[in-house]
Amino acid sequence: MEEAVKMLLTARHAIAFTGAGVSTESGIPDFRGNSGLWEQYPVEKVASRRALMENPAFFLNFYRERFKSYANVKPNRAHEALARMEKAGIIKGIVTQNIDGLHQKAGSKNVIEIHGTLKRVRCDRCGKYYLPEKLDEEEVPRCNCGGVIRPDVVLFGEALPRREWQIALELAERSDLVLVVGSSLVVTPANQIPGLVLLEGGKAIIVNKDPTPLDDQALVLRGYAGEILSKLADMLGV
Ligand code: CNA
Fold first, then answer.
1. Where do the H-state alpha helices sit in 90-222?
2. Which of 49, 188, 197, 237 is spaced 20 to 30 Å from 144 by Cα?
3. Which of 30, 104, 229 to mutate to test the pocket of ligand 1 (most atoms within 8 A of CB)?
C-alpha cells in the first residue's frame, strides 16, 4: 500500500482503468463470478451482436431489466475513492469498461466510457438516440426507419465508439501511471489501455481479487476494491 501511495504521489499523469469488479460491491455482477444472473441470461445470449440479431426479444428483455435495476444502484467505496483522488488531482480521469454510470454518480468528472452506457438506447440501423423508456413500448421496439432499438453499449463483435476510444488512447499515451481496478484484463481492445501505458514506459498498479495477465508488470494489490481503494485514498490524505 505504501509503495502504491508513493507511485500515485510521484506520478506526473495518472489515470484509472476500471472494469466490472469495481461495481460488484454495489451489487452488480461481473462476467466472471458465479452469479445466478448468467445462468438466467448466458453472456453469449445477451452480450454479442449475434445475440441481438438472432433473438432480439430475449436480448432486449435482459437490458430492460438492467435499466430498471441499475437505476437504484449506488456507488460503493471504490467509486467514491476514485472520485476523491480525481478531485485532489491525483488521477486525471477514468477510462471505464463499465456501462453502469456509477463513477459519475460517485462524483467523478472525467469518465471515458469505452463500452457505451445504459443511459440511453439507439436505433441499430440509423443510430438515432432514444430514452431507455422506449424499450418498454413493445417487445422489440423499432425506430421510424425500421431498425431495432437497442442499448447504446458495445457488444462482442462490435467496434468501440470512435471518439471515446480516441480520447482513451490519448489519455493513456500521456500517462506514466495506470491504476487498474476490478478488471480481468482479458477483453480486447480495452485491455490495450493499461498495456499502452506500460509500453510507453509507464507503471501500473492493479487492484483485483483474481490474477490478471499484466500482474507480472505491475504492483498488485490483491483483494476487494472497496476496502483497498478507500484505504489508499485515506493514506493519500484525500
Ligand atoms: P470481468 O472480466 O468480469 O472481470 C472482473 C474482474 O474483477 C475479475 O478479475 C474479478 O476477479 C474482479 N473483481 C470482482 N469483484 C471485485 C472486487 N470487489 N474487488 C476487486 N476485484 C474484483 O470484467 P471486465 O470489466 O474486465 O470485462 C469487461 C466487460 C465486462 C466489459 O465489457 C464490461 O462492460 C462488462 N460488464 C460491465 C458491468 C458493469 O457495467 N458494472 C457488469 C458486468 C459486465
1. 102-106, 162-174, 192-199
2. 49
3. 30
